[in-house]
Design goal:
Elements lengths: L2 E6 L4 E6 L7 H8 L4 E7 L2 H12 L4 E5 L8 H13 L6 E7 L1 H13 L5 E6 L2 H7 L4 E6 L2 E8 L5 E3 L9 H18 L1 H10 L4 H18 L14 H10 L6 H18 L5 H13 L11 H8 L12 E6 L2 E5 L4 H10 L5
Parallel strand pairs: 2-9, 3-4, 3-5, 5-6
Antiparallel strand pairs: 1-2, 7-8, 10-11
Helix pairs in contact: 5-6, 5-8, 6-7, 6-8, 6-10, 7-11, 9-10, 9-12, 10-11, 10-13, 12-13
Length: 352
């Protein structure tokens, strides 16, 4: 089942097209119709031979920029290399960047487009489940600093998002599971029936599941593009999850960390009597059903708290948490104290 959603950007609307085969046909046609002088595909070393070389060959003046694979390379050093390659390929303001990859590539290529020559066009072409349902939509771009994730960045709306579901066939199993954490998160904040469907039937049919999860994000972005309010609901599980990633030196993959972070957020919700204890059990059960972790055992809570202190969602010295009153009913809480955080971190520490 193909799907097309529409996102309201700052200056224009743009489509999110979810369908098998769009890299071969729809995306090249889209670029040709806009008469860019050249198109530069930014991707990683893993995806370049799989999809990058073929896509660049289909684009007008197509060139390929390749960077190392992994969150550990989402930094200033890699960005400087990208800028250098853009210049070497003759990129200018009539160039379009195509971000071909998962969330890391989408963030870096989007940030390059936002900043190179004070801004050039970008198209997002997500190849991971996580990027298809979340990272490619909404215009957030950025890189990491040693102190934390995504601390430097910009909003940059893409001209379009082309999610080619055929690329999921080459996605490693752990990366697919990582994406499922974001799908479940989307259901918990905006489509409770999606969570129930996954619990009962697993993550199928895939295109329908992607479209439903993406629709949750599109609705929130259309309401609150710059995350002054409801868009922050998308951060359910992320304050805890980003801390796991950063404190582990990114040994924890984003989605796996968000899975544990989501459990922590729901446990904090129950601790505050915002939601019934049964919701904790429901969330842990659906995550376990798709082989996602619900505990961590390799870090100390004090390390995680220190990582949280550099989270970009902090305001006036206090962390911001997205909690749940029920499935589909998120709330933003800013008065959580350190003792509560440590208690919750201890409750999700272990091997079970």
């Amino acid at each position: 089942m193909a799907a097309e959603l529409t996102v309201q950007g700052a200056d224009f609307t743009y489509p999110v097209i979810i369908r098998s085969g769009v890299l071969a046909e729809s995306l090249p046609e889209f670029v040709q119709q806009r008469k860019f002088s050249r198109a530069i595909v930014i991707t990683n070393e893993t995806l370049a031979p799989l999809y990058g070389e073929a896509l660049a060959a289909r684009l007008p003046g197509g060139r390929l920029v390749t960077v190392p694979d992994g969150e550990a390379f989402k930094n200033w050093e890699t960005m400087q290399a990208i800028y250098g390659q853009l210049l070497a390929h003759g990129a200018d303001r009539s160039t379009v960047i195509v971000a071909l990859g998962g969330g890391v590539i989408g963030d870096m290529a989007g940030f390059a487009a936002a900043t190179f020559m004070r801004g050039i066009a970008v198209i997002q072409a997500p190849t991971s489940l996580l990027a298809m349902v979340d990272a490619s939509i909404g215009g957030k771009t950025g890189i990491d600093l040693p102190q934390g994730k995504n601390l430097v960045g910009a909003f940059k709306d893409p001209l379009a998002v082309f999610a080619d579901t055929s690329t999921l066939s080459s996605l490693p199993e752990v990366e697919f599971r990582s994406g499922l954490a974001e799908v479940i998160k989307s259901g918990l904040i905006g489509d409770p029936a999606l969570v129930e469907h996954i619990q009962a039937h697993g993550p199928q049919p895939i295109e329908d599941m992607i479209a439903r999860a993406a629709a949750v994000k599109v609705k929130l972005v259309n309401t609150d593009r710059l995350e002054h309010g409801e868009r922050a609901f998308l951060n359910l599980g992320h304050t805890f999850g980003h801390a796991l990633e950063q404190a582990s030196g990114y040994a924890w993959k984003h989605g796996l960390a968000v899975a544990v972070g989501t459990v922590a957020a729901v446990r904090l919700s129950a601790r505050r009597e915002l939601c019934p204890p049964e919701l904790v059990e429901q969330v842990e059960n659906v995550l376990r059903a798709v082989n996602l972790p619900v505990r961590y055992d390799d870090l100390d809570p004090a390390q995680l708290w220190e990582a949280m202190r550099h989270d970009k969602k902090w305001r006036n010295g206090a962390a911001t948490f997205v909690l749940l009153e029920a499935s589909g009913q998120p709330v933003i809480v800013r008065d959580v104290v350190v003792q509560e955080v440590f208690a919750v971190l201890e409750s999700v520490r272990g091997n079970s």
